[in-house]
Amino acid sequence: MAKRKVDTENRGFQTRWESEYMFTKVAGKPVCLLCGESVAVLKEYNLRQHYETKHADKNKNMDMEQRLQKAEELKRGLKSQQALFKKAKSQGQAAVKASFILAEEIAKSARPFTEGDFIKNCMIKVCDEVCPEKRQLFLNVSLSRNTIAERVDQLSINLKEQLVKKGKDFIAYSLAVDESTDISDIAQLSIFIRGVDSNLSVTEEFLALRPMHGTTTGHDLYEEVSRCVNEMELPWEKLVGLTTDGAPAMCGHRSGLVAKIREKMQEENATGELTAYHCIIHQEALCGKALKMEHVMSIITRTVNFIRAKGLNHRQFKAFLTELETEHGDLPYHTEVRWLSQGKVLQRCFELREEICLFLDSKGKDTTQLRDEMFLCEMAFLCDITSHLNAINLQLQGRDRVISDMYSTVKAFKTKLTLWETQMRKENLSHFPSCQTMKEKLSTSAFPSTQLADKIGMLAADFRRRFADFEAQKSRLELLGNPFAVDVESSPPNLQMELIDLQCNDALRAKYAAVGAAEFARFLPGTMPQLRIQAAQTLSMFGSTYLCEQLFSLMNLNKTSHRSRLTAEHLHSILRISSAQSLTPNIDELVEKMGHHQVSPSTSNK
Asked: I want to staple 243 with a disulfide (CB 3.0 to 4.6 A). Which of 267, 514, 542, 603 is the partner?
């Protein structure tokens, strides 16, 4: 005989049981109003037996009306008690949630974990003045150093879990890898991922920061990247691109990171080919060295250092500029690491060239070189061309940059170089304002336009050489950039039929014109699967290691000589939180996982 199931018998609680047996229904279960015990099975026999064996003697002299009154009083007391527990539970959850929110803000602002105690003291002082009756609620928020450290780790783990979940939906992904050294001389390997799912939505997030205490050979880099990819459960066959800083350990043909990853993909029987790029921004910055004008920059650097290095000279120079009522009141420093600073130093020195010479004369320094007309012409040219290089550098920077757009920016700059070279040979200085100024002020010698045109030609040649890798991918990049202008006949056979359908579809052509190349890929219909896969692969590619460079700046803000207790794990957690872009920590989920734990005031003050 089958066992009876109580849940299927549809037994209902009867109101008369409240006065007869002093029971009420709480969360679907009968609960005794006198002792608080609950009965497992909602059955009148069970309620009567409980009442008669435990409470009959206490209430035997009460009539029915008295029983009803007492039942109502007990019910009100129970509801009041439940409300109190619910309020305490809610306040506990709010305190925990508040500690998570503040921990996230502390991590994002690169503040030390001990800042939590300072914030709490400020909160209590404000509370005492504004709402003293709420003081206990603020005391319940734990913001001790250990609590903040624990919360930051939990937030980081939550973000990682979200990324792992998203990674399972990627149909293509690429990695950006760069290496730098922190304040403790520990090599840090930064890894970012850019993945595209079946809806052609792009996710660009921090993957890992791996400290490397030993050597940093190609094999060492590969071991760390491989471990990271496996931990995130990312399939090797969906890896499309790898962008690096171009160092030998990264790009070595036999034992570099790129070579090792290609070997790994062959072992995993990956059908696709890994496309490796040297960061576009690095390439562009290196192209500037093709001008071979270090002799000009060295004179400028020596002059700036003479003025800025000694406090007395610096103060006197600023006072001198104030006295002359110049537009600028100081000179900036230049450092090789900060590429954009060179343009700013050159521009300021050119604008203050006469004032600088006067100041150096007053100090007894030789200014022959600084007054030489050929030097001034070269300085003006370097000022203008560096300004153009800085402009393209800024265009290439930023998050969520599509590689086809970055390629178009470089392609446009190469075309500009050709134009500038032609114009320079004709002494047309429309796009070189500093050179135009110098040409108007020349006394005897002619402006060296032919020599400077040759410099532009050298720069253009170096751009073509360094960006040859991107030229090899020209057809793929143009397919994403403007699929309606692609020559069908020269396209891969597996794309030709779909390309014809696409180019003949007026509705899709109108959509492309409305949303642009980057967004248009998401509107490709499911009837064009090959084009969608091609678009996903191209969208997933990194054009630069800008995100890695940005992460190293965040790392240097957090890991300083004043934060010696910051561990590698905590640094990793902080950077994951502060660099998150499309992901946000699910704080409500974390509070729920903690089991609605309410922090006591004594704990919070430890």
From this structure: 542
Q: How far apart are CA 423 and CA 551, in angstroms?
A: 41
Rg (CA), the chain: 35
CB atoms within 10 A of CB 31: 16
In 3D space, the residue among 382, 379, 375 whose CA is nearest the CA of residue 445 turns out to be: 375
Report residue 455 as tokens. 């410099």
| pLDDT category of residue 599 using cuts at 50, 70 and 90 | very low
Taking every pair of Cα atoms in the chain, the longest distance, rounded to a whole number of angstroms, is 126
| Distance between CA atoms of residues 43 and 242, nearest Å | 69
d(CA 437, CA 418): 22
> CB–CB of 218/276 below 8 Å?
no
Element (H, E) at 211: strand 202-212
* CA distance to 144, 219, 589, 597, per residue, from 175 (Å): 37, 17, 29, 40
How far apart CA 77 and CA 84 sit, in angstroms, is 11
Q: List, in sequence order, every residue forming a beta bridge with 188; answer none if it has no partner.
A: 180, 211
Question: Which pLDDT band, with edges at 50, 70 and 90, does 314 fall under?
Answer: confident
φ/ψ of 585, rounded to 5, equals -60, 140
How many CB atoms are located within 10 Å of the residue 355 CB?
17
Alpha helices in 109-210 (DSSP H): 115-130, 135-139, 145-167
Of 554, 521, 547, which Cα lies nearest the Cα of 535?
A: 521
Q: Residue 286 contacts by C-beta under 8 Å, 6 or more apart in sequence?
A: 462, 466
Q: Which residues contact 575 (CB under 8 A, 6 or more apart)?
A: 206, 209, 551, 554, 555, 558
| Residue labelled with tokens 């928020």 | 141
Is residue 85 classed exposed, middle or buried when 0-12, 13-18 and 19+ CB atoms within 10 A define those classes? exposed
| Selection from 6, 70, 18, 69 nearest residue 43 by Cα | 6
Q: Which of 151-155, 271-275, 318-322, 432-436 has the lowest mean pLDDT?
A: 318-322
Residues with Cβ within 8 Å of 97's Cβ and at least 6 positions away in sequence, in order, are: 587, 588, 591
**Closest C-alpha among 570, 556, 558 to residue 185:** 556
Let me know: does 409 contact 395? Beta carbons within 8 Å.
yes
Q: What is the pTM of this model?
A: 0.79
CB-CB neighbours of 413 under 10 Å: 21
Tell me, what amino acid is at 145? R
Tokens, residue 194? 């850019």
Other beta carbons within 10 angstroms of residue 209's beta carbon come to 24
3-state secondary structure of 213: coil
Q: Is residue 55 a contact partner of residue 22, using CB atoms and an 8 Å limit?
A: yes
At 602, the pLDDT band (50, 70, 90 cuts) reads very low
**272: burial class by Cβ within 10 Å (0-12, 13-18, 19+)?**
middle
For helices 568-579 and 546-558, angle between their N-to-C axes, nearest 10 degrees: 130
The tokens of 408 are what?
């178009």
Which has more pLDDT, 22 or 440? 440
Listed in sequence order, the DSSP H helices in 311-402 are 311-324, 339-351, 353-362, 368-371, 373-396
Query: What's the pLDDT at 219?
Result: 93
